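Quick one, C-alpha cells below. Sequence please?
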C-alpha cells in the first residue's frame, strides 16, 4: 500500500477503535489512514475482551463485519454469581430484555482487518515514532517512519485510537487534561485453555481467597481469570497452580466439572479506572482506551470504545455531508456522560467481587450482604442486568 500524504481522518492505532472507525468512515465515503505501531499478526493475537453488548454488535453490523460474529458468537442470556458456597443466576433477558454476545476481540480484529484489506484501505503496520502536530489548527499533521523512510500525512482530523499507552493523549498539554484515576491493589491472571466451558454462562466468583471468573471463547475454548496480588509474577503460576486455585474459588459442582488442559496463553493484567477529559482537543479526538480505562470486571472496555466510535463517526459523517458541527462539538460531553456510567458500574462490580487487602471483617460482611441483596432482590438484580447488557449508546 503506497503511503498517502493527505487524508481526511488520520487514525492512530489499529485496535478495535481505530479499525471500526476507519471501516465506518469508508462506508460513508470518508478517506482515512491508519497508523499502527505493531504488526498485524501481533494485533490479531492479543487476547483481551470477550463480551459484547448488543450496541457493539449493532455497530459491527453497521460496519458490515458481523457475519462471522452471528455464526460463531455465543449469545448469553445471563451470568452466574458464586459466593458463600452457593451459585445464583442473574437472568438478563428476563430482567432487562436482552443478552450479550461472547465473541473474542481477536476475532473482531481479524474480521475488521479482512474487511479493510478487501476495501483497499491504507493501514500502515509497524509505523515507528508516530507524532502529531498542529491539532489546534485547521490542518493537523502526522509524522511517522515506515520501513526506514520518514513520512508525513496532513489531515482534517486526527482520531487518537492508540490505547492507554499511546502518543495522542501524551501530546496534549497536561494543563488541558482533567485526569481521574483509581488503581486497584490487585491484578488479574488470565489463562486461555483448550477445554470445554464448565458452564453455559460466565461464572463470577466471590471467594475469601479472591475473585475468580470462568469465561469462554467457543464450545472448546475456556478463558479463566483469578485475582492475584498487585506485584504478582507470571512465573509463580504454573498451569497446575491456576487450575487448583480456580477449583478452590469456584467450589461445588462447577469445580468438579473442570477438565484441566495445558494453557495456550497466560497474562497478568493490572486493574485500573481512568478517565482523561475532555475527549476533544481542537481537531484531535480521543477514542476508547486512549481516553478511559475500566477494570475488566464489568466487561465494558471494548464496548465503551465502540460507543465512542459510533458518536465520532456519525459526527464526522454529518460534518462532511453538510458542514454540521453539532456532533463534533458535543462529542466529548456525550461520550463522557456514558463513560462515567460505565466507570461507576465497573468500579461497583470490582468492589463487590474482589478481596481488598485493607478490608476489615466489617467490610467483608457488607460485601456478602450486598451479594445476597443483588441476587435476591429483583430491583437490585435488574440494575446489574441493565448495566451489564449495556446502557443505550446515545
Ligand atoms: P487498544 O486495543 O489498546 O488499541 C490501541 C492500538 O494503538 C496502538 N498504538 C500505537 N500505534 C501507533 N503509534 C503509537 N504510538 C501507538 N501506541 C499504541 C496499539 O498497538 C494498539 O494496537 O485500544 P482500543 O482500540 O481503544 O480498544 C480498547 C479495548 O482493546 C479494551 O478496552 C478491551 O480489551 C478491554 N477489555 C474488555 N473489554 C470489554 O468490553 N469486554 C471484556 O470482556 C474485556 N475484557 C479487556 C478484557 C482488557 C483486558 N486487558 C488485558 C487489558 C480483559 C482483559 C484481560
Ligand atoms: C473475557 O472473556 O475475557 C472476559 C469476560 C468477562 C469479563 C472480563 C473478561 O468481565
Amino acid at each position: 500500500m503506497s503511503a498517502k500524504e493527505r487524508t481526511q481522518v488520520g487514525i492512530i492505532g489499529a485496535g478495535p477503535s481505530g479499525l471500526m472507525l476507519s471501516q465506518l468512515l469508508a462506508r460513508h465515503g470518508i478517506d482515512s489512514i491508519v497508523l499502527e505501531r505493531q504488526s498485524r499478526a501481533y494485533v490479531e493475537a492479543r487476547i483481551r475482551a470477550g463480551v459484547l453488548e448488543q450496541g457493539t454488535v449493532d455497530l459491527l453490523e453497521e460496519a458490515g463485519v458481523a457475519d462471522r460474529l452471528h455464526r460463531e458468537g455465543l449469545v448469553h442470556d445471563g451470568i452466574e454469581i458464586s459466593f458463600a458456597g452457593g451459585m445464583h443466576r442473574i437472568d438478563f433477558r428476563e430482567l432487562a430484555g436482552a443478552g450479550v454476545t461472547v465473541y473474542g476481540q481477536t476475532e473482531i480484529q481479524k474480521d475488521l482487518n479482512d474487511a479493510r484489506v478487501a476495501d483497499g484501505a491504507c493501514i500502515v503496520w509497524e509505523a515507528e515514532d508516530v507524532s502529531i502536530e498542529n491539532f489546534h489548527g485547521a490542518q493537523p499533521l502526522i509524522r511517522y517512519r515506515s520501513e526506514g523512510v520518514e513520512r508525513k500525512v496532513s489531515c482534517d482530523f486526527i482520531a487518537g485510537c492508540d490505547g492507554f499507552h499511546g502518543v495522542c493523549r501524551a501530546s496534549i498539554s497536561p494543563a488541558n487534561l482533567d485526569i481521574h484515576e483509581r488503581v486497584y491493589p490487585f491484578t488479574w491472571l488470565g489463562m486461555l485453555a483448550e477445554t470445554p466451558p464448565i458452564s453455559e454462562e460466565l461464572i463470577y466468583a466471590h471467594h475469601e481467597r479472591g475473585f475468580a471468573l470462568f469465561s469462554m471463547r467457543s464450545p472448546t475454548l475456556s478463558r479463566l481469570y483469578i485475582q492475584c496480588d498487585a506485584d504478582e509474577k507470571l512465573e509463580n503460576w504454573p498451569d497446575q497452580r491456576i487450575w487448583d486455585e480456580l477449583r478452590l474459588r469456584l467450589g461445588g459442582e462447577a469445580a468438579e466439572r473442570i477438565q484441566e488442559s495445558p494453557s495456550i496463553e497466560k497474562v497478568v493484567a493490572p486493574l485500573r479506572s481512568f478517565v482523561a477529559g475532555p475527549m476533544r482537543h481542537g481537531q484531535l479526538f480521543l477514542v476508547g482506551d486512549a481516553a478511559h480505562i475500566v477494570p475488566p470486571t464489568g466487561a465494558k472496555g471494548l464496548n465503551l470504545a465502540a460507543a465512542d466510535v459510533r458518536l465520532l463517526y456519525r459526527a464526522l459523517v454529518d460534518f462532511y455531508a453538510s458542514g454540521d458541527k453539532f456532533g463534533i462539538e458535543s462529542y466529548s460531553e456525550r461520550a463522557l456522560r456514558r463513560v462515567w456510567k460505565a466507570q461507576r458500574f465497573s468500579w461497583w462490580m470490582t468492589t463487590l467481587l474482589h478481596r481488598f487487602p485493607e478490608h476489615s471483617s466489617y467490610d467483608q460482611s457488607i460485601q456478602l450482604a450486598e451479594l445476597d441483596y443483588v441476587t435476591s432482590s429483583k430491583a437490585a438484580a435488574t440494575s446489574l442486568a441493565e448495566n451489564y447488557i449495556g446502557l443505550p449508546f446515545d
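The chain has a mean pLDDT of 97. The pocket of RFL (ligand 1) is lined by residues 12-18, 35-38, 43, 48-51, 105, 127, 130, 161-163, 165-167, 188, 190, 269, 288-289, 296, 299-303, 305 (CB under 6 Å).
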